[in-house]
Design a protein that fits this description.
With 163 residues, the chain is mainly α. Helix content is 99%, strand content 0%.
Length: 163
Amino acid sequence: MQQKYNLQSQMEAKAQLRQEAYQEYLKEKDQVDKVISKMIDEDQKMIALIKMKQEQSKLDMIQSVNEKRELVRKQKEMEEFENEMLRRYATQQESRQAEIVAKRAEAEAAREEIFQKLKGEEERRRADAEYIENLRNELYMQELEEQARIREREELEKREKIK
């Protein structure tokens, strides 16, 4: 019976060892599961982080492209605005130049008109002076002729009286 007791005791000890080994196995399995779960969790976080970074990078790239397009559009608008301002300035300058030329021509025409008017008046004054001078000379000549006739008549009358 002792043997039976020993055998049973050995079986209980083996069962106890098996139970302890199983408990140890469960403990280690739990630790391994925790490590694996932690690794999976870290991998998922890493994947999420990488995905988030890729999305952010994609958004940054889209934003950069949009900003570049906007910058190009604004530069084009600015160039068009500057070209329009230059065109308007050139048009204004041409208008001013044409106005200056027209005013100079108008002033020159006015000067020429005044000159012609003065020239005409001077010619009329000269003609009038010449006419008056001719009249004076003619009158003077007529007076001389009249005086000569009077003297001749007086001499003729004197001679007739003497006869």
